[in-house]
Amino acid sequence: MRIKLSQLAGPLTLAFGALLCGQPALAADAWKPTRPIQIVVPSAPGGGLDLVARTLQNVITQEKLSDQPITVLNRPGGGGTVGISYINSHHADGHYVTVQALPLVTNQITGLSKIGINDVTPLAVLFREPIVFSVAGDSPLKSGQDVIAQLRKDPGSVGMAVSSSPGGQSHIAAAMVVKAAGQDPHKLKIVFFDSGGEAMTALMGGHVTLAASPVGVAVGPAQAGKIRMVGIPQATRAPDELANVPTWKEQGLDVDFSTWRVLVGPKGMPAAQIAWWDDVLKKAMATPEWATALKRNLWSADYRNSAGANTFLKNENTRLTPLLGELGLSKQ
Predict the structure, then answer these.
(1) What is the pTM of this model?
(2) Is 300 exposed, middle or buried (0-12, 13-18, 19+ CB in 10 A)?
(3) Which of 23, 147, 259, 314 gives the lowest tally of CB atoms within 10 Å of its CB?
(4) Does residue 196 register a pLDDT over 70?
(5) 159-181 in b/e burial notation, b at 16+ Cβ within 10 A?
(6) In what order do the strands lie in the sheet with 259-266?
(7) Which DSSP category does 275 fall into?
């Protein structure tokens, strides 16, 4: 019996269509870890990045999102570059990932490192963490509007504590606020501290007028009445404990900036490995455990997958390069 080619066209088309429809699932299943996964933390145990890594470890483990165990490895140093160098010693291997923060972008701009966003494989933006501006509880400046008026009157009279090194998260936020107020950030008296806790101590002791810090270190002193949170540089108000803190936009300054945490892998990771991480992280970010961690730590939900993280990091590099140049910190 002879079968015409036209008679096979329909079945062949259906079969080919079914194969195409199954491709995403096949791609996602094409790679799975075959040995323990390491989440590398570029700081010592107990710090903020360590907390992120261990929270992610717990969620993936509890939800059984990986057939292989997850371990956390601390590799501090170099503003995150030691951790990146470590995962890149396992070239294109998705068993090794690292939690990174703003220095992933700024270190290369400022010349502190030759390692930057092009030396990693972006896997996800995990969340953002608000930066909050505070005054002492007994300060004559009662609101963000008072701070703005003082900045416009005499920026040199405002001593600003920032909980970062030059070009770090709090310094960038402070510079943006001062610029939005129409003043030169160089005229501000900036005092740099190694931690948010030290910045809060200086503020409460009356050594500075204003402090910019991650929100986590400010909530406790604010609840005790020792400081007053007067502005957050983001588009909308934060929830829960920060619901009563106005944004700078509400007070007339067009500023939107917060620090963030990302997960990246070594350079050159193949698509199948990226697809596995996209699937796992999407599920992890949707769990009640992750939602609880966001609320407990005052992190702002802002999950973006690998493609979104890649675009996000490039955009951050583009917008921060000229600002750091104005501050005299860019080496590009």
Answers:
(1) 0.85
(2) middle
(3) 23
(4) yes
(5) bbbbbbbbbbbbbbbbbbbbbbb
(6) 70-74, 37-41, 96-100, 259-266, 120-129, 300-304
(7) H
d(CA 36, CA 41): 16
Using CB atoms within 10 A of its CB, is residue 280 exposed (0-12), middle (13-18) or buried (19+)? Answer: buried
Write the CB contacts of 124 (distance below 8 Å, at least 6 apart in sequence).
262, 263, 277, 278, 281, 285, 303, 304, 305, 306, 309
- DSSP per residue, 40-73: EESS-TTSHHHHHHHHHHHHHHHTT--SS-EEEE
Query: CA 97 to CA 269: how far, in whole Å?
Result: 11
**Structure confidence at residue 29 (pLDDT):** 56
pLDDT in tens, 36-89: 999 999 988 888 899 999 999 999 999 999 999 999 999 998 888 999 999 999
Position 321: which residue type?
Answer: T
| Residues 275, 29: Cα–Cα separation, whole Å | 8
- With b meaning 16 or more CB within 10 Å and e meaning fewer, what string describes 192-229? bbeebebbbebbbeeebbbbbbbbbbbbebbeeebbbb
The model's pLDDT over 8-24, given as tens digits with 9 standing for 90+, comes to 444 444 444 444 444 44
Q: Express each pLDDT in 121-130 by its tens digit.
A: 999 999 999 9
Provide the total of helices (H) and of strands (E) in the chain, helices listed first. 12, 11
Residue keyed to tokens 């690292």 = 98
**DSSP notation for 141-155:** --SHHHHHHHHHH-G
Q: What angle do CA 96, 257, 140 make, to 5 degrees?
A: 130
What sign does the CA torsion over 291, 284, 49, 309 have?
A: negative
Tens of pLDDT, residue by residue over 282-326, are 999 999 999 999 999 999 999 999 999 999 999 999 999 999 999
